[in-house]
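User: Hello! My lab partner asked me to get a predicted holo structure for this protein. The small molecule is copper (II) ion, SMILES included with the sequence. Please write out the structure tokens.
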Amino acid sequence: MSGVAIGIAIIAIIISITSIGILTTQTTIQVLDVSSEPIERTIYVNLIEPKGSTNVEKEPFPTKDLPEGGGYELKSPDESGKWVVETYTFSPSIIIVNQGDTVNIKMLGINGALHKITIENYVSEFDIHRGELKEISFLADKTGTFKMSCDVHRPAMEGYLMVLPNA
Ligand SMILES: [Cu+2]
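Assistant: Hello! Below are the structure tokens for the protein in complex with copper (II) ion.
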């Protein structure tokens, strides 16, 4: 290959790389524009109870208590030696929206007879029974991180609503 041909090939490679760079930049800007546009969001949240169990023959029963408040349960070995640990949680436990969004949270009670839920600054306490689907709607006008908690299952049943500022 002659020196000129090599030179042209290098220039062509540089132009290609520059084009990819411009395309990438444009794509990023477009994504940001779309995400900051206020929209109506529906988010499905389930109230669940992860559970683990074993037998004293395999693993000893823990000697240390879990925090009180209903959010944790450690069930002593039964007559067969089986013991259980469980907790209550939101799934998902972190909800992220943009400022200005209209937020519809559809919350379903799956485990636990009753939950008493609050979303700091946005939603005052309301009940959810097992099998009940509640829709909570609000305008996310205030930015920040707000605690979402259940008074029946403290301290474990906690999550956050994050309202991101508009760019
Ligand atoms: Cu609860």
